[in-house]
Predict the 3D structure of the following.
Amino acid sequence: MPNIVVVGTQWGDEGKGKVVDVITPHVNVVVRYQGGNNAGHTVVVGREKYVLHSIPSGILHPHCRCVIGCGVVVDPASLIQEMEALVQRGVTLDGSLFISKNAHLIMPYHPALDRASEAKLGSRRIGTTGKGVGPAYVDKAARVGIRMADLLDERLFREKLEINLAQKNRILREIYDAQSFNIEEILNPYLRFAGWLAPYITDTALLLHRWIESGYSVLFEGAQATMLDIDHGTYPFVTSSNPVAGAACVGAGVGPRDIQEIWGVAKAYTTRVGAGPFPTELHDETGEEIRRRGGEFGTTTGRPRRTGWMDLVALKYAARLNTLSGLVVTKLDVFSGFDRIRVATRYRSQEEATFDRFPYHQSVLHHAVGEYDELPGWREDLADCRTPSDLPVNARDYLRFISEAVDVPITLIGVGPGREQVVWGDAVPEQFAPERQAA
Ligand code: GDP
């Protein structure tokens, strides 16, 4: 059975949540492989609204096992809140949720350091969510991180906490002029969390190996997106982990040969939250129109997202880095009523040089602007389209233009927020699109 990675190809918010939700009925396991509770999905099932930050939304499908991989950093208080909300609504976690023993813990000093550091940076701040995800990865790399398995050994946990606090408290007090922590105020709640989480903490890499061997199909779900990857994204305006598909292996504990399909998700246009380069950004009425029609406002903050045209230079870069086997284009419906649609096929630098590859130097990228091809738009509403032939010719031509430019077949198209509002492309393995076969 094919195992599949779903990865964002832009700067996040591409609609991965819905794509994962559409594929989940056709797999046995969903794994989160990086990031922390700085990502998240709101999933509406019937009249119930579920807010999930660390647990894959697959948990709402009774057949599906969900794994929080070793590449994820976990805030246990926030995770338990999610778990309790699920249990209260009758969702079974026993036998469905598995947490890697090697996943690192977000400790109370991590959000404190995150916020203090952002405040100190002032106008040069990264724009983090302040949840401590970055500082938790810092500790992981510094080999002083505390992991899930440490929660199960009180003596070891206390010892690691003491070592960390001695250092963190000095940094908080002396560098940031911030409040320090007392060991008991962390130890007591964390030992309570340990009691809650113990039944779920396990060797998830071994479990995945066994499940894959026995023919289960696994979906690896990336948080954030390629252009926010700490190595390959627009550093330093990036996240603190690796969302790219290759990281699914590291963050879940499987090998590259365990993955057969890699689908990249792109909106029909581009958005970005927070600071950092954005070569196809629109600062005009059209950008406003895309923002309004696409509802491009932050889910928690309500902050308007930056908007712009589709960027094929960046998308080609993402297709190469992730070795995409399929491209998912979401929010195509947002363009209905646009007379002309522009697509950036190259960048122009401040010195008037043109690039059809993603520039590797930060200073070039920061001043690069898109050079565009213009395609005719369409008037028709796409909400009820379910097969490629239902789409207006110009919408199909737009998709073909993108697909040919990046040399990746389109597997799925989003034509509205509803989970049924999708069009399956032709290049989809049968397993993932039985609906299409039936049509
Ligand atoms: P993620 O952060 O990449 O997982 O993005 P989300 O799952 O939060 O999706 C962003 C928003 O876009 C959600 O409100 C979705 O309901 C909505 N959405 C997803 N796909 C489509 C689509 O094809 N058309 C429209 N109009 N909205 C969509």
Observations:
- Residues 8, 12-18, 41, 330-331, 333-334, 414-417 surround guanosine-5'-diphosphate (CB under 6 Å).
- Residues 154-175 form the longest helix (22 residues).
